[in-house]
Amino acid sequence: MKLKILNTKNTQNGDITFPINEPLRTDLIKRAIQSLRSRARQPYGADPRAGLKHSTNIRKRRRVYRGSYGSGIARSPRKILSRNGRRLNWVGAEAPNTVGGRRAHPAKASKIWERKINKKENRKAISSAITATLDKEVVALRGHKLPSTYPFALDADFDALTKTKDVIAALETLGFADDLTRGAQGAKSLLIVTESETLTKAAKNISGVDVASARQLNAYMLAPGAHPGRATLYTTQSIKILSGEEPADSTQKSADSKPKAVKKAANTKPKAAVSKPKAVKKEAKK
User: How many CB atoms are located within 10 Å of the residue 266 CB?
Assistant: First the structure.
């Protein structure tokens, strides 16, 4: 799929081929988002000793002081509230079927809430969500206010923007004024995929607008609420990273790093300059 490259003045500056083309799979997108959100869930639960931090004093043995034998009461565990001689007043304790007893099956903080998903399924879900962001009909179903030129890519001059007001002015020039107003009212607006730190700092303060790197994309960013088709703008550099033209980790090698051949040569010990035959060695020993 080819996308037009538009600059900040809404004029075309060439085109670029988008590398990802995956069928829409809403089921995989939903599973990926559930797995992602489950890992962020805060565990909760009751104290394992809740309702058991006291002693109950009731026994079912004949002629046992403070026992309940012959009192005509149920065999529920109880604790003493008051007494008058051998006459005791109990209240139910510990057993879940008594008033004031512990809970039968309280929530446990040790419960594992994470929902796992296969790596290939997660990658396929992300690819499907990325493709959905380029489908104008699917994006319009989410309620986004789109210009007639959508979808398109952003020119490199967007990465040079350093002020929030300049980013807003550029997006309004591209035709996203109504969608920015929608985002200011609490809805999810644009997602800008860029590798520029200056553009990230400038655009992250806009209400409803999110900014992410091509290496950080996940299903929740691309399809909030498990509804695919978020209006997304990709810069040319981020598209090159998605296509694999630029390495994901641009780490520079240190100056003192040596090739494998040089390292092997450095580690090998120098051999003797002249090797003597065996016969000569034996005579030397004698």
Answer: 8
Domain assignment present for 264: no
For 103-131, write each residue's pLDDT tens digit: 889 999 999 999 999 999 999 999 999 99
User: Which residue reads 């100056």 in tokens?
Assistant: 255
Residues 98 and 173 in one domain: no
Confidence of residue 49 (pLDDT cuts 50, 70, 90): confident
> Domain range spanning residue 55?
44-112
- Phi, psi values for residue 199, rounded to 5°: -65, -35
Contacts of 210-217 spanning 24+ positions with Cβ under 8 A: 213/238, 214/238, 214/239, 214/241, 214/242, 215/241, 215/248, 217/126, 217/130, 217/193
Confidence of residue 99 (pLDDT cuts 50, 70, 90): confident
Asked whether residue 92 falls in the same domain as residue 199, the answer is no
The count of domains in the chain is: 2
